[in-house]
Amino acid sequence: MPQHVIDTTQLQCDKGTTPTPITVTSQSFMSIDGKLQATEEDNQPNINIKPFGICGILRSSCTPSPVKWDNASNFEIEGKKELLDISTCRCSVGGKISVVKSAQNFMEE
């Protein structure tokens, strides 16, 4: 079952060398474990998505250039689709950004 993407969830670009956490700024009231849920509008370079180290295409700093999140949930927060750990975002340079590690904490029973 897909998990929700929340603030500090680790993202990775398949052309970058380093994962980076997402910073949620698109909404301010829906949260899980005290962290805001991400939406499809959390795609601003250097605000929501930080650089991914060195870009394998440009051979320089992997500054994200996100185009659009795909595979978002049908559920909306203030008219914006929420992101899931299966969501991906194309980069206009040629990479694909995806979730590598959820920030959600689950208790085992």
Topology:
Blueprint: E1 10-13, E2 20-21, E3 31-32, E4 35-36, E5 66-70, E6 76-77, E7 80-81, E8 88-91, E9 96-101
Antiparallel strand pairs: 1-2, 1-9, 3-4, 5-8, 6-7, 8-9
Structural features:
109 residues, mainly beta, Tumour Suppressor Smad4, two-stranded antiparallel sheet
Description:
The protein is mostly beta strands. It is 0% helix and 27% strand. It has one domain (1-101): Tumour Suppressor Smad4 (Sandwich). The protein is built from no helices and nine strands. The chain starts with 9 loop residues before the first strand and ends in an 8-residue tail after the last strand.
Number of domains: 1
Shape: elongated
Return the CATH topology: Tumour Suppressor Smad4
Which range best describes the helical content: under 10%, 10-25%, 25-40%, 40-55%, 55-70% or over 70%? under 10%
Protein name: DUF4280 domain-containing protein
InterPro entries: DUF4280 (IPR025460)
Summarize the structure.
InterPro entries: DUF4280 (IPR025460). It is built from no helices and 9 strands. The protein is an all-beta fold.
